[in-house]
Amino acid sequence: MPIVHFRVDGRLIHGQVALAWSKMTNPNHIIVANDMVASDPNQQAILKLAAPKQVRISMQPVDKVIAYLNRGLAPNERVFLLVKDVVDANRIYEGGFKYMDLNIGNMTHKPNAKKLSEKLFVTEKEFEALKSLLEKNVNCYFQMIPTDSKQDIRPLVEAFKS
């Protein structure tokens, strides 16, 4: 399955994705799986402005992306999959598209969020989704940009649970 990268980032498409991550992973298609973005033409227009010009962009509801991924991708398709939160990442896994690695980027502070690290805040729902992915042995790691070291999320979750 030609998924070149799967990332959680509350900002979705922005400079780091458009420049650093796209350069490293060389996708020809960025898929944003998010129910709100899929129904908001204004937000879609803004995200398209931030996207690399040579890369095809799709913004679809999570269930539609699950169906697309489960059908299988074309052999020449190199997809960078992007979701806004770990809840949607978990929905994709539970929807039948099994993946092994999940890059967690910026998940900023929000009301009622738990602080796992300086740049990683999760709501109770996101925390449960993260635990679910870890129980499925998905390699969840925090990495803002490709040149940063990967930080395993499991110890942060374990420390918070205790």
Automatic annotation (TrEMBL):
<dbReference type="GO" id="GO:0009401">
    <property type="term" value="P:phosphoenolpyruvate-dependent sugar phosphotransferase system"/>
</dbReference>
<dbReference type="InterPro" id="IPR036667">
    <property type="entry name" value="PTS_IIB_sorbose-sp_sf"/>
</dbReference>
<dbReference type="GO" id="GO:0005737">
    <property type="term" value="C:cytoplasm"/>
</dbReference>
<keyword id="KW-0808">Transferase</keyword>
<dbReference type="Pfam" id="PF03830">
    <property type="entry name" value="PTSIIB_sorb"/>
</dbReference>
<dbReference type="InterPro" id="IPR004720">
    <property type="entry name" value="PTS_IIB_sorbose-sp"/>
</dbReference>
<feature type="domain" description="PTS EIIB type-4">
    <location>
        <begin position="1"/>
        <end position="162"/>
    </location>
</feature>
<dbReference type="GO" id="GO:0016301">
    <property type="term" value="F:kinase activity"/>
</dbReference>
<protein>
    <submittedName>
        <fullName>PTS system, IIB component</fullName>
    </submittedName>
</protein>
<keyword id="KW-0963">Cytoplasm</keyword>
<keyword id="KW-0418">Kinase</keyword>
<keyword id="KW-0598">Phosphotransferase system</keyword>
<dbReference type="GO" id="GO:0008982">
    <property type="term" value="F:protein-N(PI)-phosphohistidine-sugar phosphotransferase activity"/>
</dbReference>
<keyword id="KW-0762">Sugar transport</keyword>
<keyword id="KW-0813">Transport</keyword>
